[in-house]
């Protein structure tokens, strides 16, 4: 198996090293793992692509490339340039430093990389490690992802149904903020919503008297939709969420069909 990996934390991020080890296990001794990751951190860029400017790509080592662009850019570079003659069988994005559950999905560059792979017709899985008080003192904060990542990916590849939809299925996996020994299992879960919290801005004055705004996330331990990804993560479960790039509110189409016959 030939696997392409990327992330949004950057080419030198510890989570990418964790993903490389997971991918190497999945690929097997006869397989190949290729890395095309952002040269610099790209957290929060979502599915952004460098449509109006070129990006530089540099080979750092055999099968290891850095691109001055977003995770979606990296996937495009990997598929259409680096691996143009030998396309990958699977694209993995992560392991992100922090969760990409609930509303974080809509901002995540990690998700953006997997989403782009799905638009290119390839199976793709995004992986993220929820962080919290129980992971802060671990020698490896990515312990849960490192321990269970390969098994979860194999499970998805084995159980995923045949998918012929125009917007191809991709997968979002979040590992809970607990040591590996405290993981309670794997749950299929919908994307949730944290209640009473959201992204916001925080002002700060520079020494020159100019106002700057920092974007800050909401409380990551806020109550979330029961049974959803974030809620299950906080209970110690690994969440697996099937996703598509189709943003249509399909539940509203029947109710609105008489308004626009």
Order of H and E elements: EHEEEHEHEHEEEEHEH
| Residue share in β-strands | 15-25%
CATH class: Alpha Beta
Class inferred from helices and paired strands: alpha/beta
> How many separate helices?
6
CATH topology: Stationary-phase Survival Protein Sure Homolog, Chain: A
Our Rg estimate from Cα atoms comes to: 19 Å
The second-level CATH architecture is 3-Layer(aba) Sandwich
Q: What's the CATH H-level superfamily name?
A: Survival protein SurE-like phosphatase/nucleotidase
Secondary structure: number of strands:
11
Q: Which regions contain 5 or more consecutive residues with pLDDT less than 50? A: none
**Total of domains:** 1
Strand order of the largest sheet: 3-4-2-1-5-6-7-11-8
Task: Give a quick account of the main beta sheet: strands, pairing sense, barrel closure.
Answer: 9 strands, mixed
Q: What percent of residues adopt helix (DSSP H or I)? A: 10-25%
| Average of per-residue pLDDT values | 97
How far is the N terminus from the C terminus? Answer: 48 Å
3D shape: globular
Cofactor: a divalent metal cation
Enzyme class: hydrolase
GO molecular function, one term: 5'-nucleotidase activity
Family: Belongs to the SurE nucleotidase family.
Short description:
The protein is an alpha/beta fold.
Describe the structure.
- Its EC number is 3.1.3.5.
- Pfam families: SurE (PF01975).
- A divalent metal cation binds at residues 8-9, 43, 96.
- Residues 3-195 form the Survival protein SurE-like phosphatase/nucleotidase domain.
- Its cofactor is a divalent metal cation.
- The chain is an alpha/beta fold.
- It has a single domain, classed as Survival protein SurE-like phosphatase/nucleotidase (Stationary-phase Survival Protein Sure Homolog, Chain: A).
- It has six helices and eleven strands.
- The protein has helices at 14-27, 71-82, 109-119, 143-159, 229-234, 253-256; strands at residues 2-6, 32-38, 57-61, 64-67, 90-97, 124-129, 170-175, 185-188, 200-205, 211-216, 237-243.
- The strands form two sheets. A nine-stranded mixed sheet has the order 3-4-2-1-5-6-7-11-8, sandwiched between helices. It has a two-stranded antiparallel sheet with strand order 9-10.
- Strand 9 and strand 10 (211-216) form a beta hairpin.
- Helix 1 crosses helix 4 (143-159).
């Amino acid at each position: 198996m030939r696997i392409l990996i990327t992330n949004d934390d950057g080419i030198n991020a510890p989570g990418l090293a964790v993903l490389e080890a997971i991918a190497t296990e999945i690929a097997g001794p006869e397989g190949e793992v290729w890395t095309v990751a952002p040269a610099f951190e790209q957290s929060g860029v979502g599915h952004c692509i460098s449509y109006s400017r070129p990006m530089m790509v540099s080979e750092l080592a055999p099968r290891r490339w850095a691109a001055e662009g977003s995770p979606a850019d990296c996937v495009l570079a990997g598929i259409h340039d680096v691996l143009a003659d030998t396309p990958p069988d699977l694209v993995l994005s992560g392991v992100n430093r922090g969760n990409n559950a609930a509303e974080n999905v809509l901002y995540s560059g990690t998700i953006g990389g997997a989403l782009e792979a799905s638009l290119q017709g390839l199976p793709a899985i995004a992986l993220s490690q929820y962080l919290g008080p129980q992971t802060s003192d671990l020698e490896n904060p990515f312990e849960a992802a490192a321990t269970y990542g390969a098994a979860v990916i194999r499970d998805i590849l084995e159980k995923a149904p045949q998918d012929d939809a125009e917007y191809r299925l991709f997968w979002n996996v979040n590992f809970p903020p607990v040591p590996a020994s405290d993981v309670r299992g794997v749950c299929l879960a919908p994307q949730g919503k944290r209640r009473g919290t959201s992204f916001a801005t925080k002002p700060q004055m520079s020494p020159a008297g100019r106002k700057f705004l920092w974007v800050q996330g909401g409380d990551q331990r806020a109550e979330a939709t029961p049974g959803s990804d974030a809620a299950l993560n906080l209970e110690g479960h690994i969440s697996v969420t099937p996703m598509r790039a189709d943003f249509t509110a399909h539940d509203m189409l029947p109710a609105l069909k008489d308004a626009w016959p």
